[in-house]
Write a structure and sequence with these properties.
Low-confidence stretches: 1-5, 8-14, 264-280, 417-430
Largest sheet: 14 strands, parallel
InterPro entries: F-box-like_dom_sf, F-box_AtFBL13-like, F-box_dom, F-box_dom-containing, FBD, LRR_dom_sf, LRR_FXL15/At3g58940/PEG3-like
Pfam family, one: FBD
Organism: Rhynchospora pubera
Strand content: 25-35%
Protein name: F-box/RNI-like/FBD-like domains-containing protein
Mean pLDDT: 75
């Protein structure tokens, strides 16, 4: 069999062919679904082949990016006849919300974001509550109706920001959303005692700028990730009573008023303990936690850091966030600590808020000298990073005497100092 090069006229003809238009409708629909709604709509003028394609493709419409163009949003929304994949709506009036949401439910909405405008708070339309197609819901400044029964039967992800919640409503949401996988609550925790229980929940993120006396996580057999940031942690008690699959925990603020991990308190002889402002907190050892993020403040008890790390014997990834410079008197002497068991498993260390002072150096020196499989230490520096600073730090932490020959030490300038906790992302040093 021989191959011949096509003639120049044949090649020219091939170059002029509209190969995309030859694709089947299902593929073109998929391509159009990833375009901004305005751009997808403009394809209807290309040819008769494209005239109605965008109307039948899954719609992804971001009203927030079209803020102030409500008539344009309405024209796009109602001209489109196909299913709705993703819809973000800025809620100006009740009539606007009800009309859009009712139509979106009929057309199989999968991902919906409703955003209160300014200080305007809206009530969730009743037509949305029994929606079977909805998999992801995000609300800002919204309110749930007073009477709730079975809601969101197939919802997998719920993100609430500045939404009024009470324990009864929270209980209804968790008990009726049987498929709920991810829950983010941002400034929604109004009661002084918050209790969360769910058999399906895998990821939980809580942030509260108001006072919370006690936060209880119980009966969560599938919980794998728990992130939290609370106002006034020194007055907040945190209890994680039943989370046998928990692998990520953070940010664990080491000056919580009380902290309990596990179903029961244990005797001092059986379980490590630490003191926070003279309040004894006894921890059950958590062998399943692989990633721990801790927040360090200047008001720590001297023995807190090593004791809390001792409770996670199989820890692989450690994130440390320092809020400000810490006087050396607040830190333990790490060189007096016996080798902790987690050092046999620790692979990465990330510190944000690195000053290079005594407390930072002592901690890193301990980890470098004893971390048997440590692969990478990443430092976000508050101070100016130069070659002399790097050389000085390497020498002070005894990097050349490191236990792990594969260890990599990275320095970065952190222009923004310490970022505030963001529950929307995994804990990543950037």
């Amino acid at each position: 069999m021989s191959l011949t090069k096509p003639s120049s006229s044949a090649a020219s003809e091939a170059e002029g062919m509209d190969m995309i238009s030859e694709l089947p409708d299902c593929i073109l629909h998929s391509i159009l679904s990833f375009l901004p709604a305005q751009d997808a709509g403009r394809t209807s003028v290309l040819s008769s082949r494209w005239r109605h394609l965008w109307e039948e493709a899954p719609l992804r419409l971001d009203d927030e990016s079209l803020c102030g163009k409500e008539q344009l949003v309405s024209r796009i929304f109602y001209a489109h006849r196909g299913p709705i994949e993703n819809f973000r709506l800025v809620c100006y009036t009740r009539a606007t919300i009800d009309g859009f949401v009712e139509s979106a439910v009929k057309r199989g909405i999968r991902e919906l974001t409703l955003l209160g405008y300014g200080r305007y708070s809206f009530e969730l339309p009743p037509s949305l509550l029994p929606c079977n197609s909805l998999h992801q819901l995000s609300l800002r400044l919204g309110e749930f109706p007073q009477a709730l029964h079975s809601i969101f039967p197939n919802l997998k992800e719920l993100r609430l920001s500045c939404v009024k919640l009470h324990n009864d409503l929270l209980h209804i949401l968790l008990s009726t959303c049987g498929s709920l996988d991810t829950l983010h609550l941002i400034d929604c925790l109004n009661p002084s005692v918050v209790s969360i229980s769910s058999t399906s929940l895998r990821k939980l993120a809580l942030k509260s700028s108001s006072w919370v006396d006690e936060l209880i996580i119980k009966d969560t057999p599938n919980l794998e990730s728990f992130k939290l940031d609370v106002y006034s942690p020194e007055n907040t008690g945190v209890k994680v009573l039943d989370a046998p699959k928990l692998q990520f925990l953070g940010f664990l603020c080491l000056n919580f008023n009380a902290l309990q991990l596990g179903e029961n308190f244990y005797d001092l002889q059986e379980t490590p303990s630490f003191h926070v402002k003279a309040t004894p907190c006894r921890l059950k050892i958590l062998s399943y936690v692989k990633t721990l993020a801790i927040k360090i403040t200047p008001t720590l008890d001297k023995t807190t850091p090593p004791d809390i790390l001792r409770c996670f014997p199989f820890l692989e990834n450690l994130f440390i966030m320092k809020e400000e410079r810490i006087d050396s008197g607040y830190y333990p002497r790490w060189d007096e600590q016996c080798s902790l068991s987690f050092l046999n498993h620790l692979k990465t260390v990330n510190m944000r808020g690195f000053y290079g002072d005594w407390s930072d150096v002592e901690l890193l020196r301990y980890l470098v000298l004893h971390g048997k499989v440590l692969k990478k230490v990443t430092l976000r520096c508050v101070v100016s990073v130069c070659q002399k600073f790097v050389e000085t730090m390497r020498r002070q932490i005894s990097f050349e005497e490191r236990e792990s020959s594969d260890l990599e030490l990275l320095f970065y300038q952190d222009a923004q100092n310490v970022d505030q906790f963001s529950p929307w992302k995994e804990v990543v040093i950037r």
